[in-house]
Amino acid sequence: MLLVIKSGTVLTPSGPIEANVVVEGERVVALTEHSSTAFDERADRILSAEGKYVLPGGIDAHTHMEMPFGGTFSADTFETGTRAAAWGGTTTIIDFAVQQKGTSLLSTLDKWHEKADGDCAIDYGFHMIVSDVNDATLKEMESCVDAGVSSFKMFMAYPGVFYSTDGEILRAMQKARETGSTIMMHAENGIAIDQLVAQSLAEGRGEPVQHGLTRPPELEGEATSRAITLAGVTGAPLYIVHLSAAQALAAVAEARNTGQNVFAETCPQYLYLSIEDLAKPDFEGAKYVASPPLREKHHQTDLWRGLRTNDLSVVSTDHCPFCFKDQKELGRGDFSKIPNGMPGVEHRMDLLHQGVVAGEISLARWVETCSTTPARMFGLYPRKGVLAPGSDADIVIYDPAAEQTISAETHHMNVDYSAYEGMRLRGRVDTVLSRGRVLVENGEYHGSPGHGRFLSRDLCQYLN
Ligand code: URP
Ligand code: ZN
Ligand code: ZN
Ligand code: ZN
């Protein structure tokens, strides 16, 4: 099958170029000049991208499908979540296998393969959440890397659940240094936060906004600095997940200025939503409970700047949806029992395109932060993250002139609300290909569960 995408503006991290993209089977085989007709006669299909952008499919490096958390499971399965991702122009996710205390990493990995294999509409990889650091699990980190899982998430938050002590983090970082793998850190000081939470509840303050007020940005800044220090002592590459606070960004920027291998991602919710959403009355704030929490609006200015300067290298969603009606409800009257997480996998590409429209980031940075850099950061480049001969034909044709309104009525995520309900957007995904197969076209879905394959990932390709 030969397919030519003609007359579009191809987006690359070094800027837009006017080119046709030629796809044979699952791969890109050539980029040609707009005037070229070299492949037309042989082509089985010609798609016009005139007036549209052609970009490498989005890579969401932080999702949680059917994640056991907060006494329930996140509401999207691998099937529904990857379908929603495809609708939004994301053609790869990297999800998290979750080690429960007392279990092994490899049995955890097997379990996550069972959950995902045969269900995904798009290609997928795994990070490993390490919640039980001991001699055996440290040894197993080597096997995980061999099995294509080259990044390990740890938590400085959630004591008693996923929390690791500084000593445990140090040991895992030493192993990461030894194996060349990356430590991803949920950097919030969970020990201090738990005291603030207990005090708030003791004062009878159980409403959702307290989730934000008991997790102040200083405690994200402090944990981020501590993680950076530990990474510096061990020499491990460090990737700060879901960075939300100016204080944490300052710590990352300082480390990066010294040349340390420290990287960070942020998420659309921290760029567009704020603690005012958490403060919505009648328990509606529960829709916005995620950790770290939504911040005061002034943090957004810093985050956009971080995206421009590359102190924030990646935008992912931390997609972890819980239904408002039957899941967020678990924490009515006690915000500490509201399952933590928000939906978003479907709208990352669109929301970051608003940053282009508003002049916050360039087209090149849009593609870089949403596709190219996640591919490099997590060992998928140049198979993913770029449109070049030899790379997978994961392609989005994006119409920058179209308009749309986000709504739970029309989204494809398996959750009963949208955090961005009613938000008007400029631009819209027009056509999506995954390894040469058209998944979305003319507002119709042509994907199927099981098309997506597991991606065995290399080590980080983004180190200094
Ligand atoms: O609230 C969040 N972020 N839920 C997902 C789990 C995590 O910490 O990433
Ligand atoms: Zn986290
Ligand atoms: Zn997460
Ligand atoms: Zn539900």
From TrEMBL:
Keyword DNA-binding: no
Modified residues (N6-carboxylysine): K153
Cofactor(s) the protein needs: Zn(2+)
GO cellular component terms attached to this protein's record: cytosol
NCBIfam families assigned to the protein according to its UniProt record, in alphabetical order: D-hydantoinase
Matches recorded under InterPro entries: Amidohydro-rel, Hydantoinase/dihydroPyrase, Metal-dep_hydrolase_composite, Metal_Hydrolase, Metallo-dep_Hydrolases_sf
Assigned protein family: Belongs to the metallo-dependent hydrolases superfamily. Hydantoinase/dihydropyrimidinase family.
Amidohydrolase-related domain residues: 53-438
Native organism: Prauserella shujinwangii
Protein modification: Carbamylation allows a single lysine to coordinate two divalent metal cations.
Keywords linked to the UniProt accession: Hydrolase, Metal-binding
Protein name as catalogued: Dihydropyrimidinase
